[in-house]
Amino acid sequence: FGCTQCAHLAVMSYDRYVAICNTWHYPSIMTWRVYVQLAVGSWTSGILVSVVDSTFTLRLPYRGSNNIAHFFCEVPALLILASTDTRTSEMAIFFMGIVILLIPVSLILVSYGHIIVTVVRMKSAAGRLKAFSTCGSHLMVAIFFYGSAIVTYMTPKASKEQEKLVSVFYAVVTP
Fold first, then answer.
1. What is the pTM of this model?
2. How confident is the prediction along the chain (175 residues), in pLDDT tens digits per residue?
3. Contact criterion met (CB below 8 Å) for 57 and 90
4. From CA 150, how far away is CA 155, in angstroms rounded?
5. Domain segments of the chain as ranges
């Protein structure tokens, strides 16, 4: 679900981009068919990344303690419990992290870059305020979600308590 949420946040930024930068063409661009394609694409990307992560995690041998130092079972917590070298799995999960984290973040940054340029060019202060207010909540959630997910999946291992705090932040606070 986390992988799918990454894609959904990128899709939402695209929707906001079209709504603000192509206001008059919004109904013809964002059709029911486009909505379905974006939703199916989000779910498909989440499923594919999850299958790769699960494949590399479940093939590892586990012996000894089965206590996971997290609030829920996620890949970094499982890798710690493995009784063998996990470098290959860590690299595969890292590359999947690039796909599901950095590509959507790049799309969000490009969308919001165009949105900011469009909003700054608006002559109406009320229009600028409305545009920024519609984007503000999404942008804050995206920053919190991606920031904490990148810390969890794309950085060297931190303390267990820090990892727990960050994982709760992106799994509980942002939704």
1. 0.80
2. 778 888 999 999 999 999 999 989 999 999 999 999 999 999 998 898 888 888 878 887 877 777 776 666 677 777 777 778 888 888 887 887 787 888 898 999 999 999 999 988 888 888 888 888 888 888 888 888 888 777 776 666 656 667 677 777 767 777 7
3. no
4. 7
5. 85-173
